[in-house]
Amino acid sequence: MFLRMLGAVVVIGMSLAGCNFKGVPDPDVSARDREWMSLVPQADVDPQFGRYMIDDPTGEPPGTIVVDQKSRLLYFVLPDRKAIRYGVAVGDEAYGWTGTAEVARKAEWPNWNPPAEMKARWPHVRFTEGGPNNPLGARALYLYENGRDTLYRIHGTNEPEKIGQAVSSGCIRMRNIDVIDLYNRTKVGARVIVK
């Protein structure tokens, strides 16, 4: 039994030896960010959905955001063939969106005004001011395609326990600390690929 366990540990260690990733420190946050994030329920995040610097798997130019919905991962491409990988929650099958867009605007602790089709599905949803109870969380990146608002966002969440799942109405949700990190790195006009 011991030898089998030891063998398994050696195999796992050898398979991980080829991985090249490291954790990325939390970004600096304001006093308001700290206070409001402390009011959002905390959740343990599976380590596979943590924030890591890795070798770039996308081949896209620096500054590009790539969302891989199947793996529930978002990549922000850096220079020198590196990327930061974040865990995300994505749209469930009925509401997922794929395509290429650009970040047309960015907002801190944005207000949320659900679109008409969402209100029709869920009459209980309504306008919510920015803050810890807002489903858009700490930051939002607004995605436009050919100059038109797609109504899809990359944003924080007040449900961090759902990272790694297909649960949204199409938006890409991130832990608040992760979306702050991405927001700080992303320029208006950045290309976003959702596949």
From TrEMBL:
Instruction: Give one GO molecular function term.
Output: glycosyltransferase activity
Q: Does the keyword Nucleotidyltransferase apply?
A: no
GO biological process terms, alphabetically, are:
cell wall organization; peptidoglycan-protein cross-linking; regulation of cell shape
Give all residue intervals belonging to the L,D-TPase catalytic domain: 63-195
Residues annotated as catalytic: H155 (proton donor/acceptor), C171 (nucleophile)
Q: Kindly state one GO CC term assigned in the UniProt record.
A: extracellular region
Specify the superkingdom: Bacteria
Question: What Pfam families does the database record attribute to this sequence?
Answer: YkuD
Q: Which UniProt keywords apply?
A: Cell shape, Cell wall biogenesis/degradation, Glycosyltransferase, Hydrolase, Peptidoglycan synthesis, Transferase
**Where does this protein act, in terms of pathway?**
Cell wall biogenesis; peptidoglycan biosynthesis
* PANTHER family given in the database record: L,D-TRANSPEPTIDASE (PTHR30582), L,D-TRANSPEPTIDASE ERFK_SRFK-RELATED (PTHR30582:SF24)
Q: Which family does it belong to?
A: Belongs to the YkuD family.
| Name under which the protein is recorded | L,D-TPase catalytic domain-containing protein
